[in-house]
């Protein structure tokens, strides 16, 4: 007479296999969430850098490299430093109707470095910019004597 024994519950081996499967799925989920957070951080950092670059480019438009060939300026949450070197000119400007201007015009290569903290540069870029400098008196350009 053979008797059939019914097993109730899980065996130890089944429990271990189930734990391995659950822990593997859990580790994959945590890795995916972590990579999402990293991607979000990198995206925010890139956005901050683009905003800072737009601000820095806008500020460099206000610099006259013929008069201020180098300098520093604080902007929002970062600091800007620039140094320029002339690459063309200076040439006398022209004006209507006499043909000569009271300004000399030159083209400068402006190297800009942006710092987020005190020592380490955040990013750098280079722009070519026109500089101008007064070379003649205003009244001399119109032929007056004062």
Can you tell me the overall shape? rod-shaped
Assembly form of the protein: single chain
Mean pLDDT: 81
The proportion of residues forming helix, as a percent range, comes to 25-40%
Number of domains: 1
Report, as a whole number of angstroms, the end-to-end distance.
133 Å
Report on the biggest sheet: 4 strands, antiparallel
**Percentage of residues in strands:** 25-35%
Molecular structure report:
The chain has 146 residues and is an alpha+beta fold. Helices cover 37% and strands 33% of the residues. It is built from two helices and four strands; from the N terminus they run αββββα. The chain has a four-stranded antiparallel beta sheet. Strand 1 and strand 2 form a beta hairpin. The radius of gyration is 34 Å and the shape is rod-shaped. The termini are far apart. The relative contact order is 0.13. The chain crosses the membrane at residues 12-33. It comes from Chitinimonas prasina. Pfam families: N_methyl.
Please give the structural blueprint:
Blueprint: H1 12-61, E1 70-75, E2 78-92, E3 103-115, E4 121-134, H2 138-141
Antiparallel strand pairs: 1-2, 2-3, 3-4
